Amino acid sequence: MSYTLNEAAKATGKSKTTIHRALKSGKISAVKRDNGAYAIEPAELHRVFPPVPAERNEERSKQNDVEHLHNDQGMLRIQLETIERERERERQQLQETISDLREDRDRWRQQATALLEDKRPRGFWKKLFSN
Questions:
Q1: Could you tell me if 105 and 58 lie in one domain?
Q2: 51 vs 60: CA distance, rounded Å
Q3: What predicted TM-score, i.e. pTM, was given to this entire model?
Q4: CATH number where 8 lies
Q5: Where do the coiled-coil regions begin and end (predicted)?
Q6: At 40, phi and psi to the nearest 5?
Q7: Residue 38, number of CB atoms within 10 A of its CB
Q8: Which of 2, 48, 54, 124 lies 20 to 30 angstroms, CA to CA, from 28?
Q9: DSSP strand E in 1-131: where?
């Protein structure tokens, strides 16, 4: 079973660039497949670069996972803050709209009340016998 460039980098703890440079310089031999990917034999790879213990690969993987989580949390925190600012702006707009509608309602109520009140002057006898 041969390694790809990415698998070879993981197996040795080196970067893909380092493995690629070794291939180009002839330190490591590999077969280039039709799709352009390298097929690197493990014996040939580990002749130049010793294998990394599995624990170290797992540790590096866990460290990368933790870094990705921190990056994801940072992005989520920024998105949450943006959403909170937008919601606060919307809340303020709604409060202003509610306030404007209440003022309009009160003015309409006053106008309706004024129209319903009888503003005509009453005669002497009507004033005397009403209420």
A1: yes
A2: 14
A3: 0.42
A4: 1.10.1660.10
A5: 80-118
A6: -110, 125
A7: 19
A8: 54
A9: 31-32, 38-39
